[in-house]
Amino acid sequence: MKPAIEVSQLHKTFGRSGQALCGVSLQVNNGEMVALLGASGSGKSTLLRHIAGLITGDSEKACCIRVLGETIQENGRINRGIRRHRGRIGFVFQQFNLVNRLSVIKNVLVGNLSRLPAWRTLLQLFPEDDRRRALQALDRVGILDHAYKRASDLSGGQQQRAAIARTIFQRADIVLADEPIASLDPETSRTIMELLTDLNKWDGVTVVVSLHQIGFALRYCPRTVALRDGHIVYDGPTEALTRNALRELYGSSANELFGDVAEAPVRANGKPNSVFGPRPAASEAALEAQV
Fold first, then answer.
1. Structure pTM?
2. Angle at 244 between CA 242 and CA 250, to 5 degrees
3. pLDDT tens, 192-235?
């Protein structure tokens, strides 16, 4: 089976800002939960955006990115079929990337744009089955009651849940989460990381999440890829990244990665306390009322 993500010799330079990625090569297998760790400016966000086909690498370099066996970009050129490929890649942004004036459910429904005719998108005419699936996705992340509120009326944590619901509705095979907890309080951060972990474990979705605190990586991601100044400086088991190991990799900037994390919810028999489990009857009734 081919890897879910293959990055080969990716270089990216931003004008006067200098080189953001320096010959990065990476493979992520299907079903993995991987943390991209690094201080601010290490290249984490830039790498994720390349994998999603949102930006291109340096054209003069022989780089290639493949996702689920399909070429996303090569030698600085985006694949012509990128819209179709993006339909299999869910992207969770640090600042949520919701349209504030639209309702929460419509923000979820746009996750299916790559599969809908353009005229339906322009008129916001979504099939009834799509609306039902969107409500189910919101139910799974615990914000069904907010489905018809404006996105701007939700808290930061609720907006990030809506963004995750969008990837669930999208039926993404891969979720790329770019600092999804950077602007959230510790308790809400744990909730968001639990949702991503459960999506990985229950649905088999490959998840790559960029983080700047080792505690969250240790608790939720078996594998960590650490970046520094556009280079991969570590790729292996997260548990091996002790404080001493991080100081060797990052020097004085390691202090930024040492944020403490409180205990996560208890897990029974190695399985997550998932909100993605069977829906209780009361929740099903609530869903029917919203359709």
1. 0.85
2. 100
3. 999 999 999 999 999 999 998 899 999 999 999 999 999 999 99
Placement of tokens 């339909």 in the chain: 87
Structure-token match 């010799």, residue found: 9
Q: How far apart are CA 256 and CA 18, in angstroms?
A: 22
Residues in the chain: 291
CATH assignment of the domain containing 124: 3.40.50.300
56 contacts 78 by C-beta, under 8 angstroms: yes
In angstroms, rounded to a whole number, what is the distance separating the alpha carbons of residues 130 and 144? Answer: 15
Provide Rg for the chain, Cα atoms: 19
Choice between 38 and 86, residue whose per-residue pLDDT is larger: 38
Q: What letters, b where the CB count within 10 A reaches 16 and e where it falls short, cover 222-243?
A: ebbbbbbbbebebeeebeebee
* Three-class secondary structure of residue 5 per DSSP: strand
Look at residue 31 and give its three-state secondary structure.
Answer: coil
pLDDT tens digits for range 236-265: 999 999 889 999 998 888 888 886 544 333
Q: Is there a contact between 232 and 28 (Cβ–Cβ < 8 Å)? A: no
Task: Tell me which residue range forms the domain holding 58.
Answer: 5-290
Work out the burial of residue 123: count CB atoms within 10 Å of its CB; fewer than 13 is exposed, 13-18 middle, 19 or more buried: exposed
Count of domains forming the chain: 1
- 106 versus 260: which is more confidently predicted? 106
Two tokens at 242? 């002790």
State the DSSP code for 218. H
- Collapsing DSSP to helix, strand or coil, 8 comes out as strand
Rounded Cα distance between 79 and 82, Å, is: 5
Is residue 160 within 8 A of residue 184, CB to CB? The reply is yes
